[in-house]
From TrEMBL:
Keyword Transmembrane helix: yes
Residues that span the membrane, as ranges: 12-35, 47-68
Membrane topology: Multi-pass membrane protein
InterPro entries xref list: DoxX (IPR032808)
Keywords: Membrane, Transmembrane, Transmembrane helix
Compartment(s) of residence: Membrane
One Gene Ontology cellular component annotation held by this UniProt entry: membrane
Lineage: Bacteria, Pseudomonadati, Pseudomonadota, Alphaproteobacteria, Rhodobacterales
Name of the protein described by the UniProt record: DoxX family protein
Length: 134
């Protein structure tokens, strides 16, 4: 079994990065569809609406960088911090069951991003191409 999984490692690493990054890319596309709505949501959470643009670029940029495996460790750390912080900000009403589930989802994703930061992008990545995957 170990040998089989080792043979699949490049593909599974790429698949895992893509699946984890899809959340960020889709969220960025959602922001792009209605900047005003997202800005209002930020303000409802006590943050400045001026963060809409930077958040949009962060979501799209980190998502795409993770997919291609460029600066993967740094990108994954940034995604972990963002995911944990946004989970705490957005889902802080623990009395609501859905908030608790969504926060736990963010915590689990944070663990996944930290795993990528620790273990790197795998062989099918820009980092590996330039000798930065190790």
């Amino acid at each position: 079994m170990e040998r089989f999984l080792l043979r699949l490692d490049p593909f599974l690493s790429l698949l895992a990065r893509t699946l984890m990054a899809t959340l960020f890319v889709m969220a960025g596309m959602d922001v792009a569809m209605d900047f005003a709505k997202f800005s209002a949501r930020l303000e409802a959470d006590g943050l400045s609406g001026y963060l809409t643009g930077p958040v949009f670029w962060f979501l799209i940029g980190t998502g795409l960088l993770l997919i291609i495996g460029a600066w993967t460790r740094l990108v994954a750390l940034a995604m972990a911090a963002f995911t944990l912080a946004s989970g705490i900000i957005d889902y802080g009403e623990f009395a609501r069951a859905t908030d608790m589930v969504m926060l736990l989802k963010n915590i689990a994703l944070t663990g996944g991003y930290l795993y990528v930061a620790l273990h790197g992008p795998g062989r099918w990545s820009v980092d590996a191409l330039f000798g930065r995957a190790g």
